[in-house]
Amino acid sequence: MAYQIIDGKKVSAELKDEIAEIVNDRIEKGQKKPHLAAVLVGNDGASETYVNHKVKACAQVGFESTLIRLPEDTSENEILSAVNQLNNDSDIDGFIVQLPLPKHINEQKIIEAIAPEKDVDGFHPINLGKMVVGLPAFISATPFGIVELLKKYNIETQGKNVVVLGRSNIVGTPLSILLSRKSDFGNATVTICHSRTQNIGEITSKADILIAALGRPEFVTANMVKEGAVVIDVGTTRVKSDKTKSGWKLKGDVLFDEVAPKCSYITPVPGGVGPMTIVSLLKNTLIAASGKK
Which one is catalytic: 54, 226, 251, 283? Predict the structure, then answer.
C-alpha cells in the first residue's frame, strides 16, 4: 500500500511560525522575550547536537537563550548550584538540564531540584503527577510532540489499539498515559511493551498505532507490523558510518525500508519526531513566559 510520510520538519516549521507571531505580539505590547536556558554537562556528541538545535530554534522564534556549559567532571553539588541559580533568576522562564548526565551524577536528584514552574522538559514528578490526573502541567517534550503530529495528520486515536515499545519516564510512560486518558487525543487502548515482555511481535502486530521508543536501532521489522498501521519511530541512535561527513548517522528503532510499505503513515528518522521535541520545548517555554500552564 502507498504510505504517507509524517513530516515532523514541516509541522515543526509551521508551529515555529505560530510561536514567532505570538512572540512578536508580546514584544509589541512591551512584554519581555521568552528566555530558555540549557545546562550541558560534559561533551557527549549527541547532547551537543541537540542543545545546538535548541539554541538555533530559540533564535528562529525570537526567544532569548542561554547555554551553560559545565565540564564532564563537574560535581553533583556544582550542578545543583547551577540549577538553583536558574530557579532564582527571574529573567529565565524555563530551563533544561540536558540528559544523559555523566555517570557520577544522580539524574533524578537533579530533575527534582528544578523548580516545577520552570521545568519545560516536563520531567519533574510534580509535572508528571499533574499530567496523570489531567491537571495543567508541562508535558514531556517528546510525547507532547508526538500528540501534535497525530493531531496535524488527523490520525484518530479514539478506540484504537496503541502499542508503545519502551517504558521510560521521558517517552513511553507519559505517552501511554496521554493517549489512554479521556481527551480529544486520547481514549485509546494502550499496551506498553518492554524488555521483559513475552511475544512482542505478536502484540505489536495487532497495533493500529505502533510507537517505538526503545533506543534499539532497527528493532521493528515488517513481520511485527499490521497492514495499514501508523508507525511512530522515536529512536535516534548514532551509529558509525563511513558514508557521512560526520562519521556517524542516526538510525531509528524501525527498519524503515522494510516496514514503510505496510504502513498507512510512518515517521522518518531523522525528520520525524526529533524536530517536534524541540518545538514542544519552545511551546512549554512560551507557556512558562505567559505565566500560565
Answer: 54
Distance separating alpha carbons of residues 209 and 266, to the nearest angstrom = 10
Which H or E element spans position 122? Answer: none
Shared-domain flag, residues 112 and 146: no
Domain span holding position 247? 141-273
pLDDT for the residue 43 = 85
**Residue 60 is among the residues annotated as catalytic for this protein:** no
Question: What CATH number is associated with residue 212?
Answer: 3.40.50.720
- Co-location of 223 and 262 in the same domain: yes
Q: Residues 163, 85: one domain?
A: no
Tell me, yes or no, if 98 is annotated catalytic: yes
The question of whether 121 is a catalytic residue gets the answer yes
Of residues 16, 44, 93, 98, which has the active-site annotation? 98
Residue 292, pLDDT score: 60
Report angle CA 208, 210, 215 to the nearest 5 degrees. 175
Is residue 287 a part of any domain in this protein? no
Confidence (pTM): 0.92
Catalytically annotated residue among 121, 208, 233, 253: 121
